Amino acid sequence: MERLTPMLKVRDLVLRFGGVTALNGVSFDVGHGELFAIIGPNGAGKTSIFNCLNGVYRPQEGTIELAGAPLTGKSPAAIASLGVARTFQNLGLFQHLSLIDNLMLGRHHLMSTGMLSGMLWWGRAKREEIAHRSAVESIIELLELESYRRMPAGLLPYGVAKRAELGRALAMEPTLLLLDEPVAGMNLEETEDMARYITEVRRQLPVTMILVEHDMGLVMDLASRVLVLDFGVVIATGEPAEVQENPQVIEAYLGGAA
Ligand SMILES: Nc1ncnc2c1ncn2[C@@H]1O[C@H](COP(=O)(O)OP(=O)(O)O)[C@@H](O)[C@H]1O
Ligand SMILES: [Mg+2]
C-alpha cells in the first residue's frame, strides 16, 4: 500500500513576488526512487520550486506532501530533518574549510548539540565523531574525492567543487535530494563525469532525486520522467523521449527561432 503513496505530491503551487508570478498552478508527483527532472528556460521558476519544497519560500497557494505528510508551512530546518537535502546552483560550500569538514557540517542535523559546539571533541563525543567520519569517508569514496579531502573548498577545481557540493548534500543522508543545476558552468568532460556520479549514487543509495537543469542533454540521459516549466506553468510532464517531441516544449526552447 505504502508504495502507492508518492514520495512527493505537489498540488497547485502558486508563488508570487509582488507583481511577478514565479509559479502559477504547478502540480506533480515524484515516485520512490525516481530521478525526476525539472527543466525550463532561465527564469521559468525551477529554483523557486526547490525553495518551496525546502521551506525557504512560502507559496501563497497549494500543498506539498512528503510521503503523505504535509511540508507546506514547515521551516527549512524541520524539512531538512525530514530528509530533504539540496545542492545549490552556486556553490554552497564553506570556502575556507576543508572538503572533509564541509561534509561533516552536512551532517550537523544528525549530530547531538554537544558535538556541534566548538567542533572540539572529547570523551563520549569522540565516538560519535568516529561514526560520522566513517559515513563521510564512504561518501568521499563513492564520489572519488579521496585526493581532495584536506583541501580547502575554495581551492578545489570547479568540477570537483560541484561534486563536493553533491557530497555535502549526501552527507545529510537525505531520502529526497534536490539537485539544482549540478553541471552549470561545466565543460563536456566534467558534465559526463557528474552524470556518471549521479547514476552511481542512485544505484548505491536509497535516495529519490529531483534534478533541475537548464540544459536538456543531461536530463534526457538520466531522468525517469521530466517536467517542463515555462513562465511558472507546467507545459509538459512525461518520459524524456515523449517530452522532447512535444511541440510546446520545442517552442519554449527554440522560441521564435523555430
Ligand atoms: N526572491 C525573489 N524575489 C523576487 N523575484 C524572484 C525571487 N526569486 C525568484 N524570483 C523571480 O521568479 C522567477 C523565477 O525565478 P527562478 O525560480 O530563479 O527561475 P529559474 O531557476 O528557472 O531560472 C523569475 O522571474 C525571478 O526573477
Ligand atoms: Mg535557477
From TrEMBL:
Stretches assigned to the ABC transporter domain: 8-256
UniProt keyword annotation of ATP-binding present: yes
This protein's UniProt keywords: ATP-binding, Nucleotide-binding, Transport
Keyword Cell inner membrane: no
Pfam families registered for this protein in UniProt: ABC_tran, BCA_ABC_TP_C
GO molecular function, one term: ATP binding
InterPro entries linked to this entry: AAA+_ATPase, ABC_AA/LPS_Transport, ABC_transporter-like_ATP-bd, BCA_ABC_TP_C, P-loop_NTPase
Protein name: Branched-chain amino acid transport system ATP-binding protein
Organism ancestry: Bacteria, Bacillati, Actinomycetota, Actinomycetes, Pseudonocardiales
